[in-house]
Every structure is written in C-alpha cells, then in structure tokens.
Design goal:
By secondary structure, the chain is α/β, with parallel strands linked by helices. It contains ten helices and ten strands. It folds into two domains: about 70 residues, Chemotaxis receptor methyltransferase CheR, N-terminal domain (Chemotaxis Receptor Methyltransferase Cher, domain 1), CATH 1.10.155; about 190 residues, 3-Layer(aba) Sandwich (Rossmann fold), CATH 3.40.50.150.
Amino acid sequence: MSAHELSDDEYKRFCSLIYRSAGIRIADNKRVLIANRVRRRLRATGIDTFAAYYTFITTPAGAAEMPLFLDAITTNETYFYRDPQHYAWLVDEFLPGLAERSRHHKHPRNVRVWSAACSTGEEPYSIGLKVLAARALLPGWKTHILGTDLSGAALAAARAGVYDDRAVHLVPEAEKKRYFDEDAAARPRRWTARDELRELVTWKPHNLMLPLREDPFDCIFIKNVLIYFDAESKKAVVRNVLALMAKNGYLVVGPTEGIYTMLDSLTKVKPWLYQKQS
C-alpha cells in the first residue's frame, strides 16, 4: 500500500482519536471520506504520510493542529429556519410565555438561548430573527443567544454572517430585506446579516463532551448532531446540556438525536420539545 493511502490500521487509529476527542463515532464505511479530509491537513502542514500526521497531532507539538484536524473531519451543513415548526413555537408560544411570566414577576426581563453545535450560524441567527419579530413583547429586555460549535472554521463563518441563496431560502422576503444586505453581483448571490441581527448572537468554541461554563438557559437547541454519537457519548452530552437548563426551561431536539429515552427527568411537551419543571 502506498504511503499516500490510508491503511485499515491507520483508519482505526484516526477513528479512535476522533471518538476520544469529540465523542463522534465514525462508521466503518467512511474510510474514503476520512482519508480525503486528512489529506487536506497533510497538504496544509506539509507532512508526507498519514502515520506521521497521526504521530504529530497526538504529541504536544501538534496541540494547535488538533482543532484544525477536527474542523476538517466534521461536516457542517444547515440553513435558516430548518424545522420551521420549532421557530413558530419560539415566536408564538415561548417568547410570549416568558413575557407573561415576567409581567407576573416570575421571570427577569431577559432571555437566554443556547444553540449547541450551531455550525455556521444559521440556527442562532434564525433564533435572533424571531426575537426581533417579538421585540414589542420584550421592551428593554436583555437578549443572550449563544452559538457554540467544535469547529473553529464554522464559527468564523458564523461571525462573518455571509450566506448564499440556499441558506436563506426559507427566510421571508421582508425579513431578508430588513435584516440582510444583498450582494446580487456575487456568483452565487450572497446575503450578509446586518449588525442588528449579528449583535444578538455571541459565539464560543465548545466540545459537547465537556461542561460549558455558562449560566442556565431558558431554551436550548440541540439538533442534527447527536446522530454521530454513540450511546455513551450521548449520555455525556445530555448530562452537560441538562445541567444548563433553567427552571421551567425548554429543550428543542432534532428528530435524529436518539436521546428521547435519556430525557425522563423532563416533561415532554411536543415530540421535539421538553421542559424542565421548577
């Protein structure tokens, strides 16, 4: 076998490293995918072989390369208002509910939402759009929307806030005109989130397998990520997420997360929505 091909043993070693580092279980049939993505890092670092690269990133000298390796491995694809019913609930029920509780002095005048594994930012910005739509209900409120992801490259794209037509295809025209600047001359066409939207969201790198140092959140979104985790990894992630749910807080989950049996401590409100009781 050529030094530029990924052997079975090397593939297993990389898969084991990915699992230990990020809790992500790579399927047995993904060798070509992993080989192609590691080759990107071979070219970037000038390292000649898979074996030498593995040695490098598992030593202290390669500590700075490890996040870039995980960036290359993880897949990030999403778009605004994915699962529209989640955002309809957010603006029609969740935010009005917080406002009502605040009027009865049962909730402070702030809202905290965490978008876990937010990829390139479409989810937290979608949340921000709904907060802007409901701002008449929340006069003078402080808003904290946190987007976290393992990938530094994804977070850099989120901070830039530049998207193509596909990413914004579910955003109503009125919202696009109000909260995005259009670059019609670009090919493909680009939409850049304006400051009013971008200022609602903060970004932080975070590995879901580790606790997040934040105050509790009124709502947490975790969608389309845990499909890549095995049962033990999912349990660790769920433990970290539940620890950051505020009393009466909500958890929005995707249909493929496979964690429903791990949410017995919460009250099921909808098939994709759970609440922590006070």
